[in-house]
Design goal:
heterodimer, A: 321 residues, mainly alpha, 2 domains, B: 412 residues, D-Maltodextrin-Binding Protein, domain 2, 46% helix
Chain lengths: 321, 412
């Protein structure tokens, strides 16, 4: 076979497709192998090794005896670990619902405003998305300075406009710390759902909208009955990604309030609790790989199961235009 | 073929015999990037004495050091020599059999070190020493001499005098204390720096012996005193993080900083004009012993699987000699546990003097071996207490019951 293929292309046109197929196959393989290897090495392997680690007792870095589900039992039911786990989980849930309303809600409103080409839409289209491209480290650091109890811009501003009584140590007050973090997260990320919703809105064929406008004058009815169902795929993306992000929340609280979920657990989330359990908190605790792995496995299972189920449910209500 | 095998055997044997005489290259890992120049000087002095050994100093970022070191050790690519932490974090490495046990025959300098110093590098499970302890840190009150002089204040001899000093500074429109509680571990340092004398050394003896717990009235009283004095922390101190506290003091805006002696180098670097003094926070009465809290930072250890065990031991023995201690203490401005070292720095001398009446920095030295560690509990509970969300009694109770989940003496 090797000889004819050399000039086979020009001589036998019938062979051309077959050659293309094998070339295509090679090309696909070439594209697929690197990501598959990376995924296997850095995602699949760690997940399975964490799964294995979770079933062992750890003395520092040395793997001890097989302990079955003891680590899971510890983080879920044994005090005081269970209290920390559930407190962190509760905070994750709060973060998710709060961001669902603020971040995704505002994202939709902004997208709608941009879509309707309100004055200044072109400028705002860029402005809204700008914080998304900033690094979380920078955002966290800058907002931490803004919230500084003594020198922070927020308190200074409140004092300047005569609202000094509202000045508070935002990140040190149990009532405001988590809300402050949620606010910063929403500020930084609102551009993402805006962009996704906007893309969805722009995909709606104008005939549908024109037809709908003949039926109703109410903008609200239009949004509720026509627009919202038609941008359901965008909503699926925003909702599911926000869900995953909320339960994996780590960088922003880590940068702004530290590993311990200060003040006293009020900003503690599963990501922080996992990190300080598995890798140890230099200035307070010791590491426990087993418990940390158990937490990681539970987080993974929770996110995977809920995100999959929810995606399937959300997909069903999507309409193809 | 036979000749080849013969030659090979001969060559290998010759090589094996010659190996010890050849240069032995050791690596030394550290989390002290900023101390590189001094370590290189110390290493050069060692190499001059031991021409057959070369030591390479490698420093890593402090907060990821533990992870880097443990990953390397687990993967058999660890260094020959390394800095290790003390207490619980030390046991995480030593307990996994990664370190070489040391005897006084290997490291003669160990014999002259104090029991608390040795304890910091001893694995409790087998009672063996695995590291040469290198520096002690002291929890005390650091103060701005300029502000004290300006207001006519002197180092307090009683708790009431300390409160009065703080009030005088606050009345003068400055920050009395720079401390904030937003960074969790700062809550542990202020307890030790401010309340050790109020609590008294007997309590610490008893807690180490397991005959009392943290609900002891003496300890609760210490927490109460802390709550009282927090009235002189900056407004909004619950949101003030560690870096901000440091800045408040270093910039000369605050008169006092309750914390560790390790802050001093940083304060001096940030503001060379700052005149710094130190004192042990006093007890109720002037005659009460003035106590500071002390712990050891870490130690130098050898890799159990090193190819050059003798060279490693030689270097570790060197780290416990007065020659090493002299440079270490005076160039890095640390207080060394090595006997026979004279400190050139006046302030360090003062701290070394204060260390004579010391109690352990208790949660680190004795309750950071299991989870939830005493530190984790105390930090969160004090943060809560100082935010006004709980009482000293409740905080003490929560700390005790948390430790009681694994510590038998607290379970009765």
């Amino acid at each position: 076979m090797p000889a004819p293929t050399l000039n086979g292309i020009s001589r036998t046109p019938a062979r051309t497709p077959r050659l293309r197929v094998s070339g295509r196959g090679l090309w696909i393989t070439f594209l697929l192998v690197p990501p598959v290897v990376v995924m296997a090495l850095f995602v699949i392997y760690p997940i399975f090794s964490a799964l294995a680690y979770a079933f062992y007792d750890w003395q520092g870095l040395a793997r001890g005896d097989f302990v079955g589900f003891a680590n899971f039992e510890k983080v879920l039911f044994q005090q005081p670990f269970a209290a920390t786990t559930w407190n962190a989980f509760k905070n994750n849930i709060f973060v998710f619902f709060a961001l669902m309303i603020i971040q995704n809600g505002l994202g939709f409103i902004l997208a709608y405003a941009l879509w309707r080409d309100l004055p200044g839409a072109r400028f705002h289209r860029i402005a809204v998305f700008l914080p998304v491209v900033l690094s979380t480290v920078i955002i966290g650091y800058v907002w931490k300075l803004f919230f500084h109890p003594i020198f922070g811009a927020v308190n200074q501003l409140l004092k300047a406009v005569g609202l000094g009584s509202l000045a508070t140590p935002w990140l040190g007050d149990a009532d405001t710390a988590l809300n402050a973090l949620i606010f910063v997260n929403a500020w930084a990320w609102v551009g993402f759902p805006t962009l996704v919703f906007l893309a969805g809105l722009q995909r709606i064929p104008s005939e549908i909208l024109d037809a709908a406008r003949m039926e109703t004058d109410s903008e609200l009815t239009l949004i509720r009955r026509v627009i919202w169902p038609l941008i359901a795929p965008s909503a699926t993306v925003c909702f599911v990604l926000l869900f995953i992000g909320s339960f994996n929340w780590f960088e922003l609280p880590y940068i702004m309030v530290g590993l311990d979920g200060s003040p006293y657990g009020n900003t503690d989330v599963l990501g922080l609790y996992f990190y300080r359990t598995a890798f140890g908190n230099q200035s307070a605790g010791i590491q426990d790989f087993g418990m940390g792995s158990a937490l990681a496995v539970l987080m993974f299972l929770f996110i995977a199961v809920v995100a999959t189920t929810w995606t399937i449910y959300l997909r069903k209500r999507e309409i193809e235009v | 073929m036979k000749t080849f095998v013969k030659t090979l055997t001969l060559g290998l044997t010759a090589g094996a015999i010659a190996a010890p005489a050849m240069a032995q290259e050791l690596s030394l890992w550290s989390w002290r990037q900023e101390d590189r120049a001094v370590y290189e000087e110390l290493i050069a002095a060692f190499e001059a004495e031991h021409p057959e050994i070369t030591v390479t100093f490698e420093a890593f970022e402090a907060s990821s050091y533990a992870t880097i070191l443990s990953t390397a050790l687990a993967g058999d690519s660890g260094p020959d020599l390394m800095m290790v932490r003390a207490y619980g974090a030390f046991e995480a490495v030593a307990g996994a059999n990664y370190l070489m046990p040391l005897t006084e025959a290997d490291v003669p300098g160990l014999a002259d070190m104090t029991a608390p110093a040795i304890a910091a590098q001893t694995l409790r499970a087998d009672g063996k020493v695995y590291g040469v302890p290198f520096a002690s840190q002291t929890m005390l009150v650091i103060y701005n001499k300029g502000i004290y002089e300006q207001l006519g204040l002197s180092e307090p001899q009683t708790w009431d005098e300390l409160m009065a000093n703080a009030k005088a500074v606050k009345d003068a429109g400055m920050y009395a204390f720079a401390n904030g509680t937003a960074t969790a571990w700062q809550n542990e340092t202020i307890v030790s720096a401010l309340t050790s004398s109020v609590v008294g050394s007997e309590f610490f003896d008893e807690i180490v012996a397991g005959t009392t717990d943290f609900t002891d009235p003496r300890y609760v009283s210490g927490l109460q005193h802390l709550q009282d004095i927090s009235a002189y922390f900056p407004d909004g101190f619950t949101g003030l993080d560690y870096a901000s506290s440091q800045q408040l003091f270093a910039s000369g805006m605050a008169a006092m900083f309750a914390g560790g002696s390790f802050e001093i180098a940083n304060f001096r670097a940030q503001n060379p004009d700052l005149e710094i003094g130190v004192f042990a926070a006093p007890g109720e009465a002037a005659e009460d012993e003035k106590l500071v809290g002390v712990f050891f930072d870490g130690g130098y250890a050898g890799n159990a699987t090193t190819e050059h065990p003798e060279a490693v031991k030689a270097f570790l023995a060197y780290t416990a000699t007065p020659e090493f201690g002299q440079v270490f203490a005076n160039k890095l401005r640390n207080i060394t546990p090595i006997a026979g070292v004279t400190l050139e720095d006046g302030l360090l001398n003062e701290i070394a003097e204060l260390n004579r009446a010391a109690v352990p920095y208790i949660m680190l030295t004795n309750f950071r071996y299991e989870e939830p560690s005493g530190s984790v509990l105390l930090q969160a509970e004090v943060q809560k207490m100082l935010a006004g969300e709980s009482t000293p009694e409740e905080a003490a109770e929560a700390v005790t019951s948390g430790i009681a989940t694994y510590y038998a003496p607290f379970q009765d």
